[in-house]
Amino acid sequence: MKKVSKVVLLLAAFMLASSPAFAVDITTNGDLQQWFGYSDNAKFSDQAGLASKSGDFSFYSNPSALTGLGYSSSNYKAIKGKTDKSDTDAEASVWTRYRQWFTATSDDQNVKGVFAVEIGGVKWGYQGDSLGKSKGFGYSGDGVNVETRWLYTDFIVPGIRGHARAGLQTVPLAKDFGQFIWSETAAGLTYFKAMAPVDIGVGWIRGNSATSKNVGFSGGNFNDDAGYLNFGYGQGNNRVAFVLAALRQSGKITDSGAYSFDNNVQYGGVTGKFAAGALSGALTAIYQGGSVDLRTPTPQELKRQATLANATVSWKPSANHTITLAYLFASGDENAADDKIGNYTAVDVDMNHGLVVFEGIATEGYTTDSPYWLDKGLKMPSVRYDYSPSKSLVLSGVYSYITTDKNTQRIGAAAINSALGANGKTYGTEIGNELDLLVKYNIWKGFDALFGLGYLWAGDALDAYTNDGAEKAKNIFKSQLELRYRF
């Protein structure tokens, strides 16, 4: 609690420090969420076990004796044994997340400083060692769990105008391509200028630095650096945007620890939105190139070549009814034994869809935040119906048929289950049929409740992630309730 008190005092000092000779307008806003959840297979939704920032790819050279899956990313180990019928693992959990923003704007509107903190999501009753993110909601509530979420300076550039932004910020690709390339925060120096109806953005992002905090700006060869250039035309529901982006991650280690590698990724993408009367829609297409350069023990280059496409069409026949059809495709990798990487990967995203497989109501306790399944890609048609009988109530239903682009498999799995053989076993592509029912109700100004039920009829693709790869995956039920206060 002493740590939190110091933070509060610092914030108070920050808000009182403006000089009469230089007026500063200070504003604050917050977002407090309480999430209640139940699942009859809670281990399948193991606190976002499959993270997009793990950088999925596969190669046959070093199958993991631990999982029998033979992949690089820790995501594969995370899903092992999570789809068994033999272990139901039913559980109810509750999480809390709180975000608070402080913004200081100069009186001439030319400079803005933004600072935001986050607590959570913290699981109720989880004490751990009481130190670090998502801890400290056990007895007495003791825990050091305040996280810096945003911290940047935004200013108008003299002469050329436009906005420059330096510090920890939402990566600007989130505006048009966020859910498919990069939507989370990272430190960087970015620039954006709108010249209606045209806008342009450019930036450099450093997602990670493995060198000492005292080493110079470019010291070492173990940094994650990214750059992007994007153009846009139009605004809102009538807009087209283009992006070129590149990311280099150096000095990475495979999950088995046997290989070190550099990850080089390039993206080229286009997206468009339209609205005409009762119809609206969006289309996104992205090509991913680059390579994974294995350094040790034997140098080898694995070439990247992957694609992603997403299309949505919505029809609003009246003010109360909306029907949305969508299709998402992400290419998968079929052959882990060759020198090609055919699966699409994002940098760090939050894929929100349904309740069971992807992020749902809660941004905790889900299975994956990626628009694909491991290195096997995704094919997902879906239909959504929204009915709003009043301004304060929305009823929704979503059906999704979720499959991978390529068959799931266990390779080099004889050490796990001799019945699978040295070359493992190939499974199907069907993750399952998912049905989600949602109710959103505005209780008071700024205060909403969102309740959902989700059920996944598991398919044969998930059989690969039973404990020994020989069982049938179980169906999964989830329910979630969110109480959210925004001010």
TL;DR of this structure?
The chain is mainly beta and 487 residues long. Helices cover 5% and strands 51% of the residues.
Look at the structure and give the mean pLDDT: 84
Number of domains: 1
Helix percent reads under 10%
Instruction: Provide the CATH architecture.
Output: Beta Barrel
Low-confidence stretches: 62-70, 215-220
The fraction of residues assigned to DSSP E strands is: over 45%
Named CATH topology: Porin
Essential attributes:
mainly beta; 18-stranded antiparallel β-barrel; single chain
What does this structure look like?
- There is one protein chain.
- It is built from three helices and 21 strands.
- It is mainly β.
- The two termini are 24 Å apart.
- The strands form two sheets. It has an 18-stranded antiparallel β-barrel. It has a two-stranded antiparallel sheet with strand order 17-18.
- It has a single domain, classed as Porin.
- The model is unreliable at 62-70 and 215-220 (pLDDT under 50).
